[in-house]
Design a protein that fits this description.
Helices cover 40% and strands 22% of the residues. The N and C termini lie far apart (66 Å). The chain is globular. It has 262 residues and is of the alpha/beta class. The protein folds into 2 domains: 7-176, Spore Coat Polysaccharide Biosynthesis Protein SpsA, Chain A, CATH 3.90.550; 181-260, no CATH class. Strands 1, 2, 3, 4, 5, 6, 7, 8, 11 and 12 form a 10-stranded mixed sheet that branches. The chain crosses the membrane at residues 223-248.
Length: 262
């Protein structure tokens, strides 16, 4: 019996005209269905999505997990591949997906509830091969109905019931992350605030020790243990910014908790 199956791609978007076309171009030949859930874009995002035959839906943004759960609830194919607009499939990953859809892989693949996909990210114009950024596995392909996103303000994650498989890291996604420091800091304040609120919601006790040492240990781990120095000056900048992110996150958490006690 053939293991051939159908595949839905799912995106959530907001003002992604600079990225979405590239992502859709990379998946158009392996897509049986494209779902784009938009949260009020004022640019050409919706127009671009429709030009690729996507089913475009609209919903006011609440949080990433809720938005993605709503998007996957509209997918009706056998498996669902969740992509971000600033990602695209590499040529090797395209071939893997085509073989998967065509039932050409080993039989055990077709019993899996989810697949972890590697991701290679660009930071300030350079592809990062170390620093803990590659292979950067994330659970992106799930069997329809096998799971959902766990609610979080940032860094939401899939909860999938059943066997999960890591795809070979050579079959990776390209990820066009921050291309300038301006772009990084445009999102920095909002993301650190959301992360601090997550810590507060989890009732994590604020600690000056954590504020001091977590960023320091994070830098040492990323730059030395994860070989960030092999990524050159970009690796140094990335490690410093990542440590600063952790510092600000815990500072905001400290003051947020202090305000709650007044």
């Amino acid at each position: 019996m053939s293991n051939a199956l159908s595949l839905s791609y799912v995106f959530i978007t907001y003002n992604e005209e600079k990225n979405l076309g590239r992502a859709l171009e990379s998946i158009k030949d392996t897509a049986d269905e494209i779902i784009v859930l938009d949260s009020g874009s004022s640019d050409k995002t919706v127009e671009i999505a429709e030009s690729f035959g996507a089913n475009v839906l609209h919903n006011k943004f609440v949080d990433f997990a809720s938005q993605k759960n709503m998007a996957i609830s509209h997918a009706c194919k056998d498996y669902i591949f969740v992509l971000d607009a600033d990602e695209e499939l590499s040529e090797d990953l395209k071939r893997w997906v085509e073989d998967f859809r065509g039932g050409k892989l080993e039989p055990f693949h077709y019993n899996a509830a989810g697949f972890f996909v590697a991701r290679k990210s660009s930071f300030l114009g350079r592809w990062i091969n170390h620093s803990g950024w590659f292979p950067d596995y994330t659970l992106r392909i799930i069997k329809r109905g096998a799971g959902s996103f766990k609610k979080a303000r940032v860094h939401e994650s899939f909860e999938v019931h059943g066997d999960k498989i890591k795809i070979d890291k050579n079959n990776f996604m390209w990820h066009y992350t921050y291309q300038s420091l301006e772009q990084y800091f445009d999102k920095f304040n909002a993301y650190t605030t959301l992360a601090a609120r997550d810590l507060h919601d989890r009732r994590l006790r604020p600690s000056p020790v954590r504020i001091i040492f977590n960023p320091l240990f994070g830098f040492i781990k990323q730059y030395f243990i994860k070989l960030g120095f092999f990524d050159g000056f970009h690796g140094l900048v990335l490690a410093v910014l990542s440590a600063f992110y952790v510092f600000v996150k815990y500072c905001k958490h400290y003051f947020l908790s202090a305000e709650g006690k007044r």
